[in-house]
Amino acid sequence: MATEKFRPTLKDVARQAGVSIATASRALADNPAVAASTRERIQQLASDLGYRANAQARALRSSRSNTIGVIVPSLINHYFAAMVTEIQSTASKAGLATIITNSNEDATTMSGSLEFLTSHGVDGIICVPNEECANQLEDLQKQGMPVVLVDRELPGDSTIPTATSNPQPGIAAAVELLAHNNALPIGYLSGPMDTSTGRERLEDFKAACANSKIGEQLVFLGGYEQSVGFEGATKLLDQGAKTLFAGDSMMTIGVIEACHKAGLVIGKDVSVIGFDTHPLFALQPHPLTVIDQNVEQLAQRAVSILTELIAGTVPSVTKTTIPTALIHRESIINSTLRKKDGLPNE
Amino acid sequence: MATEKFRPTLKDVARQAGVSIATASRALADNPAVAASTRERIQQLASDLGYRANAQARALRSSRSNTIGVIVPSLINHYFAAMVTEIQSTASKAGLATIITNSNEDATTMSGSLEFLTSHGVDGIICVPNEECANQLEDLQKQGMPVVLVDRELPGDSTIPTATSNPQPGIAAAVELLAHNNALPIGYLSGPMDTSTGRERLEDFKAACANSKIGEQLVFLGGYEQSVGFEGATKLLDQGAKTLFAGDSMMTIGVIEACHKAGLVIGKDVSVIGFDTHPLFALQPHPLTVIDQNVEQLAQRAVSILTELIAGTVPSVTKTTIPTALIHRESIINSTLRKKDGLPNE
What residues does the HTH lacI-type domain cover (chains A, B) (predicted)? Predict the structure, then answer.
């Protein structure tokens, strides 16, 4: 190896520019909080000095903590609890400890978590992003902090590596099954429109309905909470839905609650498609047919990309998607069979 | 206020003793890793200098992070997920952010978490302790780090403040109900004997059986996992148990699984007492009768004690217990009524 030549640090850039390290960092991340003229001057200076963002990353991580930070939007949502548990288990095999923060679907909380994790020297961050924190996440990446997004993506042309699930295969298989069994109309409980998962799943649901030629179905625009699932399921039942199709695991619990309170037996009086795997979904009297995201594989991929970033290598894949799958159990009524057998439709 | 006089720091003690800060810290914490003679010499020197542990705590926290650390043994256990969520919510109202680590019931992982949290400047720690980490936790407290134990206590005469639940009222009410309904014999799934919760609940169960004069019942010595609950419930059913009584929420899921696989309808073919509240426990076809620990109140008390410690005031109460309560739903069969009505006993 050739002798390593002088590598200027962010501190060098800041000192020569006569600004604070924080300002230099923001200017290099092209943060509009710094006046455009100042940004340009500092960027030019950094370029002249041969400064590279990684030099800062190296300085930041001069004493590696061997710890990664994980930010999820909820812990009472079993899907995210399973995700952080698998992230920790996978990271542990790579010699990395894991600390966790819960953003509670709140941008301010997430922003504070990102600051804490960064200033307390984690080696990298795996984050289920809140879209309001897009700029902060992009800045962190530009400053050399290894960041991987999991479960959700940022809108636009973000270059932050992602590990997400592809809802299409599972949703298409579910709609095909429901169309085949004539378990219609479907009442779909959509996730929130300010999450990529909410938008994509609704889009894939509508596309699947079009493909199956069952026409437009009932949709409730909801959110990732049990109470919202309960409210939506109750409304969709009132509107005549024969199948309740939940857009996430928390709304699946809300769907079970709504059926329970309405005295409807799932798999006998009403059909249900759940989302995600939960031990108690499979233990319903008519075990729930669900769309499975393979959360373990998602978590493993996110850690795999992050460890490559931490090692300073360019990850082999930066946008990875895991296909969803339909797990067919017993919560879908086959009305076609009933018709054939001369049984009433309900 | 009088002018504050010179307060020696741990660094001063270490320098004058000619040892490292780590050694001085351990000696003052009476850690046997330091030779007895050295410990005595350093303790004497600290006393001569007028060193007080709090001075170190103040130095450690000279720049308050307004962040607390929480260590729980599992996140897929809904009880602990609910606990950290409530701790975060309560801490947030007090202006404190929360970072979480999952010890995974492993002493080495907990030990690493304690080190990370301490060295990264959290203002205090709420911890579900692993008993193998007792000395480390005691040392931390002696060094002035605010620490509160939640859910579990340390054996012996630990002076670390605790917020735990008292299993006695809930368990006594459950056993009384089962005795009254003649839902016997009871098969009790005990938690592990290396946790205070496992020991206390089993003790209270045995005492309640003695009080109710129903004699010795069936006991399976288990652990806080669904798979262990499944195994234990299956064995207890084989041994003729008419009621399965779960010693925690994960084993409750294992009990539901065992009944499901055996084709037994809970509340009709077999009686079940669950532990803790989970939305899906209340949504079983015969909603589960459970023992509720009031996890929100537990979390709030733990934060309340911790904020007092962080503020430097002596907490008004350092050992707080929240009584458990029986939530009576529909999973207990009344065999006495059946007998009276001339119905068969099962």
Answer: 8-62
